[in-house]
Design a protein that fits this description.
Structural class: alpha+beta
Largest sheet: 8 strands, mixed
Helix content: 25-40%
CATH architecture of one domain: 3-Layer(bba) Sandwich
Bound molecules: flavin-adenine dinucleotide
């Protein structure tokens, strides 16, 4: 690359998703530095996971106490909710029900209650009559369910755009359409595809679906490979008489990092989404059909998934049987019926919303990674496996990285 200009920054962030923007935001808010540049490969922000998710601010129920998710989700949700309310952005404070869709999952409610309380989430077990007061149509097969009053739904794109606006006021540079950059080992600079050279004290890789790839440029993330899982959504048709007022989730399989097909009203209660699926994706950005297929990654991933299935590692067989084929509407509607029995195929239509999870697989341990992870390599930090609830947790995840990783 021919260098046309050279600039110096304290922090260079790769990726203007929720994680990268929140890191820059907290660095500015805490007066640590405003000499920050964020480089983004797309022409706009929100074109990948942060702009394609369910917009749910999770309340912190699912995560093993002491995991990084548990440490940052509850406070992250509270802070982001307050921040959104202060700016009068759309927010639907509709709460969430978690319902066992099989008899044998009833005991998991106690596990979730215990985890939620240990993590500091507001959570309670309700009996059927109380559940029906919130959402009468729910299938309450065991007569119990979890109620999380603090779960809410926001508009992710509006949140991203507002953070970007406020970062500009702080003087942070967000440069877009940077398709690639070069990094030479043992240097503190990257050369961008637009001909600029950026010198930095610290580089933070927040590139979501590409984070493992970029980490490897810096000799980090060697144990991991991306296993992308696609989340497709359907919507309730406007003509559907079923009035879903709250989030309705199944009791998840806690062995895999997917929550199962659920019902989610949007931030303004205009739509109800059903999904997302957790279908294998055939590329990092394979949102539709044959677009952006990565044959090499997919072949390798098929091999990994077949081995996980044959040896049933981490309950992978259960995932395949229950979740891998939910892109078929007949399977999806059956999963949805387990929560709301009245729903039929005629009530739903395919949504344009599709997201892909930046799910990492540990090649050595042969397991899907559940928690957020990070690696520090000289003066670069790599945020890896920023899967759900990284959107919810982003303000507190940023503070955690600043306090525990940057300053060590
Ligand atoms: C279907 C689905 C539903 C979800 N629902 C929820 C939810 O309800 N609540 C919740 O909390 N979380 C949810 N999540 C998870 C959440 O969306 C993600 O954890 C979060 O958005 C990750 O943010 P990010 O900044 O790491 O990634 P991204 O938003 O993907 O941002 C990464 C950015 O890096 C850029 N980039 C990549 N490579 C380069 C490069 N070489 N140079 C420059 N820029 C680059 C990309 O273009 C992108 O803009 C969901 C995820 C999915 C897939």
């Amino acid at each position: 690359m021919i260098i046309k200009e050279e600039r110096n920054f304290d922090i260079c962030i790769v990726g203007a998703g929720m994680v990268g923007l929140s890191l820059a935001y907290q660095l500015c808010k805490r007066n640590i530095t405003k000499k920050i540049i964020i480089i983004e490969k797309e022409i706009d922000i929100g074109l990948h996971t942060s702009g394609r998710n369910s917009g749910v601010l999770h309340s912190g129920i699912y995560y093993k106490p002491n995991s990084l998710k548990a440490k940052v989700c509850v406070s992250g949700a509270k802070r982001l909710k307050e921040w959104i309310e202060e700016r009068k952005l759309p927010i639907n404070k509709c709460g969430k029900l978690i319902i066992p869709n099989k008899e044998e999952l009833d005991s998991q409610l106690d596990v979730l209650l215990k985890r939620g309380l240990a993590n500091g989430a507001k959570v309670e077990i309700l009996k059927e009559s109380d559940i029906r007061k919130i959402q009468p149509e729910v299938n309450c097969i065991t007569g119990r369910g979890i109620w999380s009053p603090n779960t809410c739904v926001v508009d992710p794109i509006k949140v991203l755009k507002t953070i970007e606006e406020e970062l500009k006021v702080f003087g942070v540079q967000v440069i877009k359409n940077i398709s690639d950059f070069d990094f030479k080992k043992n240097t503190s600079s990257i050369s961008l595809s637009n001909g600029e050279k950026i010198n930095y004290a610290t580089l933070i890789n927040c590139s979501g679906l590409h984070a493992d790839e970029i980490a490897k440029k810096f000799d980090a993330g060697k144990d991991y490979i991306l296993l992308p899982f696609k989340g497709m959504y359907w919507e309730l048709k406007r003509t559907c008489r079923i009035n879903i007022k709250t989030n309705v989730y199944p009791v998840p399989d806690l062995n895999v990092p997917f929550l199962g097909v659920h019902f989610t009203p949007n931030a303004k209660s205009e739509y109800v989404y059903i999904g997302p699926t957790a279908t294998p994706a055939w590329g990092r950005e394979n949102y539709e059909g044959f677009n952006n297929i990565d044959f090499k990654l997919s072949l390798n991933n098929l091999k990994i998934m077949s081995n996980q299935y044959l040896q049933n590692r981490g309950g992978f067989r259960k995932y395949v049987h229950e979740q891998a084929f939910l892109s078929n509407p007949f399977n999806l509607i059956n999963a949805a019926k387990e929560l709301v029995p009245q729903i039929t195929l005629n009530n739903i239509q395919k949504s344009k919303k599709v997201g892909i999870r930046a799910q990492l697989f540990n090649i050595e341990k042969k397991e899907l990674i559940n928690d957020f992870i990070y690696e520090k390599k000289e003066n670069s930090i790599h945020i890896l496996n920023a899967i759900s609830p990284a959107f919810t947790s982003s303000f507190s995840l940023a503070d955690y990285i600043i306090d525990n990783v940057m300053n060590t």
